[in-house]
Amino acid sequence: MRIRGQAGVWTVVGWVALALPVAAAASDARAVGGGVVDGPLGLTSQLGFGATSDGGSFQCVMAGRSGGFPFGPWKEVLQMEVHGDVTPGSLVINADGSATFTGKARVQVVGRDANGKILKGVFPGADYSTTHEAGGPGEATHLLQVLGLTFGPAPLKAGHISITP
Question: pLDDT tens digits, residue range 8-26?
């Protein structure tokens, strides 16, 4: 629902009203989305993000799947969580309509070494880069680069990504 007010457009979300200036509501680039990212067992993940020119947040979780991937001392990564802020000014809407942004994240990893021993690690302040294509299941894609690893591009199995130039 939109109600025109003196300061611009008022947008009512549930019981919360947000005042947005007309110019910002119409012209601010943004990438917003989330869902389940498809992939082979061990690489299926859950994703959620919101990015504007002012920054935002990003979270990607790969957890609870067998057949993980090797990384550093981990022969098999069983869980990986990447959660962090979007660096203000890093959002770029690419010529093909996809959106790329970067930031710093806290990365948590749980897995097994070559002997089967459980190893845990936390990497605070890790640089990440991610690129998304808009759409719903089978159309939208997600690519993540963090800690020297590249995941994707992989399609969304469920959910939606919106990109506004």
Answer: 333 333 333 333 333 333 3
- The whole-model pTM stands at 0.80
Bridge partners, 132 (sequence order)? 99, 142
Cα separation, 114 vs 22, whole angstroms: 58
Least confident of 30-34, 80-84, 89-93, 150-154: 150-154
Q: Mean pLDDT score of the chain, rounded to an integer? A: 83
Dist CA 69 CA 15 (whole Å): 44
E strand intervals along 67-140 = 69-71, 74-86, 92-93, 99-112, 118-133
Sheet of 2-5: strands edge to edge?
A: 2-5, 8-13, 16-20
Query: What are the structure tokens assigned to 100, written together?
Result: 């790329």
β-pairing, 141-146 vs 149-164, is antiparallel
CB 74 within 8 A of CB 139: no
